[in-house]
Amino acid sequence: GVEASTTAAWMERHRQMYERATRHPFTVSIRDGTIDLSAFKRWLSQDYLFVREFVAFVASVLLKCCKQEDSLDMEIILGGVASLSDELSWFKNEAVKWDVDLASVPPLKSNLEYHRFLGSFTEPEISYAVAVTTFWIIETVYQDSFSFCIEEGNKTPPELLGTCQRWGSAEFKQYCHSLQRIVDHSLANAPADAVKSAEEAFVRVLELEIGFWEMSSSQC
Ligand code: HMH
User: Fold this and answer.
1) ipTM higher than 0.90?
2) N or C of the chain: less Cβ packing under 10 Å?
3) Looking at ligand 1, which residue's alpha carbon is closest to its atom 9?
């Protein structure tokens, strides 16, 4: 129905930028097997710092969800919060494997820019529709990027398959689809200005994700 089409329409409208975020040279080089391992380590340590900030962001989405009259989405979002505990442990384990000292890594510029953006969602004036849209597209960029690395014909180095599985799995894809349904339902009931803000946030996430891959590829 009409309800299911808002997010799909945005993905179409902003296709070029979506492709730049989900088929970035960094993740494409994982799939090609040409990835520079120092770049991978940089991504790993920067993403650990990102996920630490992401916890507070997802908690703020959960809080906005709970304040909704109809909070049927609560369990999906709560599942998202819960899985971050596992994710932080995963990063710490990977860091040991790759001999990366997470404690000594400062966040780089693009990461800090992303932190600032995520931090702005704790403000109560930001609506649930905008927040959950942001949450969905953040997760979807990783889902699409990493599932490409394990699709047929990949030359992904075996030691990186675990990373790609984490976000490229069928289970994570299902989770992203659940979030997408929540977003479309929420946008269908949102006022026009909230829908406009949600689309702006969608585009902003794509920009920030591109910046994050760039930061990982080359020190800046
Ligand atoms: C930068 N975007 C970034 N890191 C992540 N871990 C995700 C999205 C998915 O959670």
Assistant:
1) yes
2) N
3) 139
